[in-house]
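User
Take a look at the entry that follows and flag anything odd:
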Amino acid sequence: MTLSEIAQALVDGCRAGTEEANLERLYAPEAVSVEAQDTGNGRVAEGLDAIRAKHAWWAENATVHAAEVEGPFNHGDDRFAVIFRIDATLFGERTRMAEVAIYTVADGRIVREEFYYGS
């Protein structure tokens, strides 16, 4: 898959709620996910199993009321960005959050994702 195809597939999957299928289809087994801050499980998840666990943690702890996905915004041959806006209840507190995710692609797979939070 090309960078544009991977980026669009990720965004389409996020909009459709098929993020888990995207992990299998789009991510390299050794992919790394980096959060802007430690959410209690560390900032860095290394490998597809650790990224799956991060997704499971979110599903168990957050109630998403609304979500918007903007993008993708391609950068060169190997990166793209996506903007996420989420209205969710996390640990009993309802909040609205925005984050920018930067994805790095190599050999037709996502190998790194980094999240930047808005205030």
About this structure: The CA atoms of residues 85 and 98 lie 4 Å apart. Strands lie at 27-34, 44-46, 62-75, 79-90, 93-106, 109-117.
